[in-house]
Fold this sequence. Notes:
Oligomer: single chain
Strand order of the largest sheet: 1-3-2
Helix content: 55-70%
Distance between the termini: 42 Å
Radius of gyration: 23 Å
Largest sheet: 3 strands, mixed
Strand content: under 5%
CATH topology of the largest domain: Neurolysin, domain 3
Number of strands: 3
CATH class of the largest domain: Mainly Alpha
CATH architecture of the largest domain: Orthogonal Bundle
Shape: globular
Amino acid sequence: MKNxxxxxxxxxxxxxxxLKEIAHLNGIQSLLHWDQETKMPxxxxxxxxxxxxxxASIIHRLHSGNDFKNGLKQCVDLKTGECIIKNATDLDKRxxxxxxxxxxxxxxxxxxxxxxxxxxxxxxxxxxxxxxIKNDFKLFLPYLEKVVNLSTQKIDFYQNSSTxxxxxxxxxxxxxxxxxxxxxxxxxxxxxxxxxxxxxxLKGLLQKIQAKSESPKKSGIESLHKTKPFFExxxxxxxxxxxxKDMGYDFDKGYQEKSSHxxxxxxxxxxxxxxxxxxxxxxxxxxxxxxHEGGHALYEQxxxxxxxxxxFCESTSLGIHESQSRFWENIVGKSESFWSVYYPILKDIxxxxxxxxxxxxxxxDINSVNxxxxxxxxxxxxxxxHILIRYNIEKKLIEKSLxxxxxxxxxxxxxxxxxxxxxxxxxxxxxxxxxWSSGGIGYFPTYTLGNIYASQFYEAMSTxxxxxxxxxxxxxxxxxxxxxxxxxxxxxxxxxxxLVSKITNSSISIDPLIRYLDKKYSG
Length: 523
């Protein structure tokens, strides 16, 4: 398949010009979000909410208006999305298929709804952050109820729109319409058996690990996750920045800030920013945030700028996006090879705090398997249980078999049953994630899909690169280049399923993930 934008049929250019204008406005909208989550004065939330609502309306008006529709219908059958341009190439057809898909989603939603939705999630995120600090679920509950209600309204708009006829398979479950926004063409019918199989395999692996007679070596720094020693934020920050640079994150095209929940935001491949957060009694809160978000950022910086404004300069799916962050955070960042290089550097930064440990025992300590209440602190074996709980909750919220007001009790019960832990508070339980406050119902399954994809890509990469040797030699650029060439450069040219097949010559499978975990934790 040809790669250059110069290969696109000239008849598409007017449409692509409109898309580029919309993309610039989306970048401005994202900049407002970035500022809100990092530097915005607290009392500015009212005006910021109105600003975000206004620009969301403008973007929607441009995307769903007659000018765009008229330009699109010169290229495709609006009902089916089929290309009608003579002598169109496969590249033309694929690009138009994705453009039409986005247009369909846009025209299904009234502008008044789009504005209300954007304003709601803007203020909801602000309230969530406050509620989490205060450990007060009731403070957040009215906003959560509104987000859930608006999400069900969105589904109704999709289901009742004749323009969605070409995706009838989504009607098998209402949750599919939200899932489809993050993982296109994935459905509950596909996820349920995949996740059920994964849950069973992970339970067996966890029992196997826990039954081992020899407990993991302890490093003498059990206090890493307790109250002391004190790891100064500046030292953590500098260490994270060094790792990001070694990964290939281009600080001339982005930078790192602090926020209440780590995230990555992109305005253009030349401007991709990340955030993290720190705990002075936990080395890995900030570091894992930096590496995880750095993985996301490398994907965005690896998209081809010449395609900016088109789907070919956007990520394939959130599951593929999460495969990049989870790959760097876990397969690289928690590997023995990684710490053989970076532990001496870390010990130079925190000599007194780490004086009673060595690299081997440090590695075993950070990879110990202990079911806990916090998703972002979870080990690789139990992490997906956190996602499965959230996935089932989201389905029940959309099915209306679970009311938002009952979430804390349901959450705590689910954690007790699946992970054997009881959350110590709502802040460490149902309030720990930002996703629902920002309207991200349907997002959580992509984390587990990301772990599955990452393991499949890792096996494929390992047939071409000695990954561990690259890490030990601090040649992380070789790994980044492989990801650039095999994943990043394509944008949405391939679906997630197509990309997995292209890279691995197989379909989506949990087997590589189980092999990776079994070898690392019980081998």
